[in-house]
Amino acid sequence: MPLPAWNGAPLARDAIVTFGEAMIRLTPPGNQRLEQAGAFDLWIAGAELNVAVALARLGETVAWVSRLPANALGRRVLLHARGQGVATNAVQWAPEGRLGLLFVEVGQAPRPSASLYDRDGSAFASLDPEAFDWPALLDGARAFHTSGITPALSPACRRATADALAAAHAAGCHTSFDLNYRALLSTRDEARATMESLAPLIDTVIASAGEVAAVFGLEGEPADVAPELRRRLGVARVVVSSRLDTERDTQARRSVCADGDLVQADSAEFRTVDPLGGGDAFSAGFLSGLMDGGARRGIELGGAMAALKQSIPGDFAVVDREEVEELVVGGVQGGTRR
Length: 338
Fold this sequence. Notes:
eight-stranded mixed sheet; alpha/beta; UDP-N-acetylmuramoyl-L-alanine:D-glutamate ligase
């Protein structure tokens, strides 16, 4: 039997609420290609759930709103999210439909990583927008976060995303939106039109430099494109980050926040074990830091979160607050933590 869903009671006061689909991610071990694989590593995945887990690991009160199939796979996702400290009482159960699958090849240079979706007909994509009482769900919430993946899944998901952002905006809680452009889900024109239509309801837009170039045609350093994207969208704040190659076969993340002022920070260097989930970890760190200490604190915490996540297989940032804070101040750069 499925676990109980939301019963109409408000979510935790001052919670950060995220909204989006979860999937099962299947990855061949040992950097194999899909056509070689005889077995798979199984992970729980999904951008907004990744953000929720990372926020919970930082000690934030967080709730995830979603829709899962009422079967063993749906329960697997829910129990895994709960085990990471995410409140799941607002998850709806679907009597029909399926859980989406994400196949990921983790590549090594010169071969890039690659993804393959098998998510058509998912329980989440077939949600009913009218089934979500957003004013009640967001009553007392501190912030609301979603991404461009969610509205790209179906017209119903697009409507639900707009309804959620409108309710959050009306309630006066901070709204954030990760552009999260996925060419497998929408065209560039569709992604741009969605972003522009939702912009009046969004306080903070988060994007990678590559996504900004792909969707809006803005190329260059984050410090150049972030203010221009902010001007085009008319939002209060735009955060843009990109990965930089270093001289030691590692990378670092350079992040910029434009909100009238311009702040920039580079993360600690990292060597990527798994490329997925880094942007979600950054979003979580940025949101936590922004609301507790401002934009600079946000990009520093986000950069540390993303750097740590790149060293961890799977989609979740399985970190603790202490190691994140140590990395912000340069206390851990490899070796043994004592």
